[in-house]
User: What shape does this take?
Amino acid sequence: MAQYLGIDSSTQSITGLIIDTVSNEIVTEKSINFDKQFGEFFGVENGVVDKGNGVVHSYPLMWLDGLDMLLAALQKSRQDLTQIRAIAGSGQQHGTVYLNKTADYAMATLNSGKNLSEQLSGIFSRKTSPIWMDSSTGQQCREIEAGVGGQDALLDLTGNTAFERFSGPQIRKFYQVESEAYAKTSRIGLVSSFIASVLAGKHISVDAGDGSGTNLMDIKRRSWSAGAMDATAPNLSERLSPVTASSLAAGPIQAYFVDRYGFSPDCQIFPFSGDNPSSLIGLGLVEPGHVALSLGTSDTLFACISEPRVSYEGEGCVFASPDDIHYMALICFMNGSLAREAIRDRFRLDWSGFKDALKTSEPGNGGGLLLPYFDPEIVPKIAAGVVRKTLEENDAKGNVRAVIEAQAMSSHIHSRWMGIPITSLFVTGGASANEEILKIFANVHGCEVHRFETTNAAALGSALRAYQGNQPNISWAEITGPFCQPIFGSTIQPDPSTRAIYDMLITSYEKLEKQHTKL
Ligand code: ADP
Ligand code: XUL
Assistant: This one.
């Protein structure tokens, strides 16, 4: 038996998925939902705390409680954790964790009789972590761009213009607003590297995939850029672990996890990556070609590319792929699942009622449109504010259809910069379980949509990364092939009779969007 564990520490939940590489099966998958388990204690909603004015944080201690609970659930499910040869993982991208000088000792000397949060509550120089939903750092973005010689200079260097949610602008704001706490910070990790570090009992490097989401990494060299660090905060290089290749083992799991959950002391920990870069692997995108769509808390559309391709309009991002060879182009929409849920809840529906509303309404919605900016949107960049055009506010079916059509059309319009013809979409994320939503994406993009056994490609991609790191002589195609095949017979075909309707609707949507982004 050869088994590998992938852990995805996401916005709303933490998931563990184990693969067996002899039977080529996913043998178990468990998720811990943060709101359900810790919502009351930490005061989070959808896994986060919205502090107002664009400030959105979460609690690293809650992620540790989630990790303990997840591993206990895996152990309880009668998985023999001694069989796990290696663990890799992923985290929601961009979020930063701030540790003080006690962290090294505390992380290395854990007592397996106590849980993680009891023992690690003192290691933070900042109790909360800003996460990817935080849009409060516009000023710092402009300052960092200016500091490296302008927006295009930062784009050429890091592959990305400065984004509010990226780690660099968030670190700069912390340094400016809480300079004393910054001075007491000895290490800054990403969500991904923080969880990996706790598993290994020492600081683990940031992988190049997640390092790309910081505005601090030289995208071509795959290492921190001195210029970008200088433009961000003083003495930052001392506070960051170096960027590493994703497939370089970081060391064995620490005794706490061996004694408490029964892992083998030989189980290797590999650097964790971002949730989107890990999903790239989990959907088998290890060669340029296909395009994927993740319908999670955020909606993302992404593809594997050979060379970094930049988005001069700031519509997209480029990350290093954790296959250590390619790159990934990505567009991130803030208003994904939470926008769908806002409409679902407004009309007191459940997902089955939401599905029925889509089934029984007409493609094109009679021209009715909605700009679904329940939260400030990343692409296009615009403040929060929902806009309706020829759509009644209390028309349940119309609003349900309009939110999904808007998301599908926006992903169509804003993916043009990628320069990749979208001939099929591989889907993942919680909402990819909803066939009626997928039909609309198939019709708007005019392409087939393929579904997979798990809706958590990030956790699967992590497990596959652990497998590849442990068996580096096996090619990526052989690693991903058996696990990343679409479910037989599940492909959703576009309906050609809707083409003309959506061609017209896309034109009107784009016009409406332009009118409002100019305001
Ligand atoms: P993340 O990884 O960002 O935490 P997930 O990929 O786990 O998020 O997706 C969680 C979301 O999936 C939930 O917020 C919920 O809105 C959505 N979801 C779950 N089931 C359905 C469904 N049947 N239809 C639409 N959305 C769904
Ligand atoms: C990507 C992004 C989000 C987070 C959370 O740039 O900000 O998709 O990774 O999933």
Remarks:
- Residues 10-13, 296-297, 337, 340-341, 351, 429-431, 433-434 surround adenosine-5'-diphosphate (ligand 1) (CB under 6 Å).
- Residues 24 and 118 are 38 Å apart (CA to CA).
- The radius of gyration is 22 Å.
- DSSP finds 20 helices and 24 strands in the chain.
